[in-house]
Amino acid sequence: MNKLSIIITFYNNKDHILDCIESIKSQRNQNFDLIIVDDGSTDSSANLVKESINTYDKHINFITLENNSGHAHARNIALEHVNTQYVMFLDADDQLASYSVEYYLSKVNGFDGLVAPIHKFTMNKPQYVNKDKVRVEYLTQNSNPNSFLRKNTVCNILFKNAIIQAHNIRFNENLKIYTDASFVLDYMKYVERFARIFDFPFYYRGEVYDPFEGNTLTDQEFILTFEDYVNSYFDSIERTDNKKVIHFLTNKMKKEIKNGFDPSLKDIELRYNTLEKPLVKVVKSLKWDLMKDSKILYNLEILFLSMNAIENAKYVNNLRYVSRHVKNILQNNKLKNRSKYQLFDKEEGVDSNTIVFESFGGKNYSDSPKYIYEYMQRNYPQLNYIWVFAKPEQNVIIGNAEKVKKGSKEYYDAYSKAKFWVTNARLPLYLNKKENQIYIQTWHGTPLKRLANDMKVVRMPGTTTSNYKKNFYAETSRWDYLVSPNRYSTNIFKTAFWMDEERTMEIGYPRNDVLVNRSNDQEYIEQIKKDLNLPEGKKIIMYAPTWRDDEFVKKGKYLFDLKINLENLQKELGDEYVILLRMHYLISNALDLNGYEDFAIDVSNYNDISELYLISDALITDYSSVMFDFGILKKPQFFFAYDIEKYDKGLRGFYMNYMTDLPGEIITDEFKLAEELKNIDEHKEKYKDKIEKFYEKFCSLEKGESSKYIGDYIFNNTK
């Protein structure tokens, strides 16, 4: 007979459940019973589980409930079927490391339980238990009663079934969300000795893919969970008379109130209005605990709440917000400029004749904002123009625009004052987009790779899938208009950016006007070549690869390994060609071009890529949206996709059929690439039909008047 039962309950978990089941199937020690409860799922998750366990060589107790009745009920049903010495619970969106069961069973030693840690989701999971890092302690309930209460969950704890059944311990089905504490507190009364594991990952809390529809407790909106958290707290303190436990639960409740009603939260007023009843109820109960060791204004807010004086409490909450910013200003710290902005930014300060421009987060003077500005500068020089730069002194701009440094007082003044914001990338959420301001987002490319909400999993440093999508949604909800280059992009923006067509300007990209208007301007093209000091008489090829999500070093820094084999390219093409290397701005490692000075030129920091398109005879790319802009010129393109299998399956995937819809050949071998580049004219003729089809689908909307459309719109709305 097995020693352990693992219980998994699920409801509509199609995005995660298979990963959870696979983590069970991959356990090195399979000496456990498995009980799975489908809590009335209405999606495909039940069928997915059944398909998965069909190939699993183990008897599984699969229980199907007709209607969804909640976690507590499903787990209580499962407990009726446990016949082993120990039982543990696994959430359907979580995963167990392959060594976990083996290690747990070797350490539980007949004690009354085993408590193991829960770690955040990670891609880099250990393959074995590192004995130099893991720590196991054997504790008593008298000395360490709160060990069972970590993380608000019963998951990753081995409970002794004899205790559960002898005392009929069950989950409280009257609670909606925070049901676990009721079970744990009743169980703890009968625990004497237990094992606790520290400092090493065994159990990974699942990653939320959809923060708006997901049912993961840790990511649900505070407004939806707070009342149940309060009910769970009152339920919990009724189940114990242990002072250490009550103190532990009370401190967690205090932290929930303090963090959940922090005055800096954007939706603080909504929280107060929606959660007034449970907030007043718990504050009345914990008034003196909450006021202990707290600051004067917070205590005053708590006092008003305990008296049910909500409006007074809200006033003090706002006063706390103001006092924080005043403190930053008086202390002259690095946030002083932002604090001044937050305190004094008002609708009446907006000037209808002022426009602020920013490109790639202030990196340079480029892209669609540049072309909109230059059109307006020529036609409406009387307006007030401001450009934002990280390094204003390093950027030369035409016209009379004021240059301001990002983060400076002038920067915040610009965004406070300007009626129009024009940028091609996301702006920080701490900038307050007011009702009488118009935010025009030009974006920076026709999407090939999945974007934002369409990305199932986000692999970027410093964020999670859930946080990334939430922040992206908060940003796109501020956009009054989004510029789209074609119908294909408009349809993608609907789902990726949550954009409706009324807010979408389907007019082509302003940065592409120059490709339409000056493609035959030889004098202009020759001047660009001279500015870049390119040798006369040679054909020009540009290499512009995408950045890969999984090649990051740290937040904002990525490494890139140049795969095109410059040595071979120079050998094969050096007499007739020059190659321009255009790397993504996120790439951190500088290119080493020693020995290739007359053949390869690094143009990564050249501000205007449109000018580079004009002078190039052909383009080498892979999965970058540069293909769409370059397609306007109907010149040859070569797709050097050396990692096509990995990129398609492991990273974002594609919107279009990459294998069939490109206007050129897909090449995976560096030597074949060199051979094909020798025959640019032949390539253009060979792919003539595909180049034309590609142009009609993605580029035909570009008429060279996008800057005029937006510039005129802005001018007409300045009054």
Automatic annotation (TrEMBL):
SUPFAM superfamilies: Nucleotide-diphospho-sugar transferases (SSF53448), UDP-Glycosyltransferase/glycogen phosphorylase (SSF53756)
Signal peptide: none
Superkingdom of source: Bacteria
Places the protein is found: Cell membrane
Keywords recorded for this protein, A-Z: Cell membrane, Membrane, Teichoic acid biosynthesis, Transferase
CDD domains: Glyco_tranf_GTA_type
Start and end residues of each Glycosyltransferase 2-like domain: 5-147
Membrane topology: Peripheral membrane protein
PANTHER family tied to this protein: TEICHOIC ACID GLYCEROL-PHOSPHATE PRIMASE, TEICHOIC ACID GLYCEROL-PHOSPHATE TRANSFERASE
Family, as annotated: Belongs to the CDP-glycerol glycerophosphotransferase family.
The protein, known as: Bifunctional glycosyltransferase family 2 protein/CDP-glycerol:glycerophosphate glycerophosphotransferase
